[in-house]
Structures are given as structure tokens and as C-alpha cells.
Amino acid sequence: MKNSQKLMNHQELGTQLDLYSFHEIAPGAPFWHPKGMIIFRELEKLIRETLDKADYQEISTPIMVRKDLFEKSGHFKFYKDLMFTAKNDNQIFVIKPMNCPESTIIYSSQVRSWRDLPLRFSEIGRLHRKELSGVLNGLFRVRQITMDDAHIYVHQNQMIDEIDRLIILINNFYKIFGFKTSYYLATRPDEAMGAKSLWDKAEDALAQALKQNKIKYELQPKEGAFYGPKIEVHVKDSLNRSWQLGTIQVDFNMAEKFNLSFVNQEGKKEKPVVIHRAVFGSFERFIGILVENYQGAFPVWLSPIQVKVLNLTDRNKKYAKKVATELIESNVRTEIDDANETIGKKIRNAEVEKISYILVIGDKEEKNGTVSVRERGKGDLGAQKLEKFKSKILFEIEEKI
């Protein structure tokens, strides 16, 4: 790990690398610049591909709904101080601070059978929470949050298997980023909805799934949500700070509150258990941690600009453009620097931008149909045929290297 005194924070790096910015006109809500949105979209793509393979169905719910919904779920009682509200047509609306109550509307839109379960609804939802101005902290604590949520409706007998699947999914996902994880089991708080017997059953299921996966965990007494206990997954960042990211929550109460049911094998109505889960926690916090951990030197697949092509002289502009075009057509994010500067300055500029690969194009390269490759952190790799370089970088992108 690098000396922490020399590390830049994610707000400084965001400015230096032109990823995002913060402005008083919208406190607690980042402005995402084009390069920052590339990172955001790559993470969206990754989570969607992961969930498609895991048999999730993606939904999207309104950002503003009547207050009644959150009163019915119990959220308004516990979280009303964090909710933004608006009045229209003599009705109070809530700018949604969480996705779960609206998921029940889609579940209830048709009769569900035991054959439908587990039913996995995922949602990348934009949420708003009225955080105090004094606690706002760049991407780490925001008022506008992008949450990768899911609500999974299961039979009680499917609960442990589904939690087991979620633990494996979260672990495999974090391995891509080299995160070291710590697990916590947060139990029933003093103010909680529902019978203690159901809470005990939910806590036992979470603990059993952790043990099945041989995961050591710490208890967090009375730190569960008001509707159910939860597994919290924490990671350490480059400054050794611990952040909560992923969560797995078991909820017996939402089905009761919203009268949710499915038809069981005997043809009778039965209430599902709802499992809430998040992998990123929030896109904002996750990206803030990544920016600081990598110090802007992202792996190739996540880099906003993966290749910078530099022409040595004006004579080489045409070939440099041909090289860049071929890479772009292969879905490699590529830019050309054909400014009237020395090659040394162009290389230094690209290094400051933390570009993964720099390709230098001169007369020799143009004549031989090659590119001179410089890799971030390794320096000059010498001349290569473009096809060889392209195969290398496409492999690294595909394998998330």
C-alpha cells in the first residue's frame, strides 16, 4: 500500500481526472462528467450482466409517490426526517428514499404461484435522503443516491439457500476489485416491527448461511433495520477506513404490511419472505472508494480512456487516426493527441491522465505497420503489430484485468 500521506482523496482526483464535480447549487449531489459516466456505466453493465446470469428481472419504479405508501410500510415513522416531500393537488408526495415499498406494487400486480419463487426483482434506483449538510462528504455521503437494489420473494424453505447464493454473488463480485471483506450480523433493534419469533427465525437463517460459507462474522446487537436483521459487508479502503457496502436483509414484515401472498402447492394463499439486498451499497460510495484505492490508475476495463495515440510528427497524423479508428471500432476507448507539442510532453500529459496504454506513432511505425507501446507502470514495451496489441488489450478488458 502506498504511503497514505501521499494519497489524494476522491474529490481531488475527480477534479484532476475530470470525472465529476460538486457545486453549491446542488449540495450532496455530484455532477458526473463524461469520463466519470464511463466508469458509472461500466459498473452498471457489470452488475446487470451478473444479475442476468443469476436469474434476476429488472424493474424500475417511480421516483415520487404518495406518502401513504411509506406510511403503510412503516418507513415514514422511522425515517420521515430523512425524506424530501412535495405537495401537489392537496396531497403529500415523497421523493423516494428507498425502493422496497414500490417493489411490492409490482409483486402484487398479478397472482403469484409457488412455482414463481424465488422471484428476484432488481432495480438501479435513484434515491434522495435529507442528510444534514454537516455530514455530506463528496461521494461517500450524498443526498442523491444510486442504489443497486434487489427484492427477492421466497418461500420460508428457500430462505437459507437464497441467502447462500447472495453471499457467493457478493464475494465473487468483490474479488474483481480485490476488496478484503468483513462480515457483520446486525440483530433486532429496540424499535422493531413484528414478532420476536420471526426475527429469531430470520437471524438464524442469516447466521446459518454465513456458517455454510465458512465466513467469520461479528454480531452487531440491535443494529438491524426496523423490519428485519441483516448481514452487512464492510471493506477497507486505501486509508484503512471501513465502509459498509453490501447488505442482505431478511424481512417477514413487508408481506404482512402489504398483504402479499402466493398460492402454495395445496392451492392456499401463503405469505412470502422478502430478502432485500445490495451489492454496491451505492454507486457513489463504491466509485469514491475505487477512485481512492486505484488513485485514478484504474484497471484497463474500467479506465475512461484505455489508449492514447500520439503522433510523432504531422506526417504521421493519418496513420495515427487509422490506428485509433481501428481500436475504437473494436470497442477500445481511444483518444488521439495530435497537438503541436513535443512527444515528451504528450507522453507526460497522458501519464498524468493515468492512461493505461500509450501508442507512439512515428515514421518507423508507419512504415512497418506497427505501434510503439507504453504501458502504465511498466514503461516502453517496444514496437508491436497493431493486431497483437489489440488482442492483448481486448483480452484484458474481457477478463477484467
UniProtKB/TrEMBL annotation:
UniProt keywords, alphabetically: Aminoacyl-tRNA synthetase, ATP-binding, Ligase, Metal-binding, Nucleotide-binding, Protein biosynthesis, Zinc
Cellular component GO terms held in the UniProt record: cytoplasm
GO biological process: threonyl-tRNA aminoacylation
Keyword Ligase on entry: yes
Record keyword Iron present: no
EC number(s) on file: 6.1.1.3
Domain called Aminoacyl-transfer RNA synthetases class-II family profile: residue spans: 32-299
Enzyme's top EC category: ligase
Catalytic reactions on record: tRNA(Thr) + L-threonine + ATP = L-threonyl-tRNA(Thr) + AMP + diphosphate + H(+)
Molecular function GO terms recorded: ATP binding; metal ion binding; threonine-tRNA ligase activity
Cited Pfam families: HGTP_anticodon, tRNA-synt_2b
PANTHER family named in the record: THREONINE--TRNA LIGASE, CHLOROPLASTIC_MITOCHONDRIAL 2, THREONINE-TRNA LIGASE
Family label: Belongs to the class-II aminoacyl-tRNA synthetase family.
The protein's name: Threonine--tRNA ligase
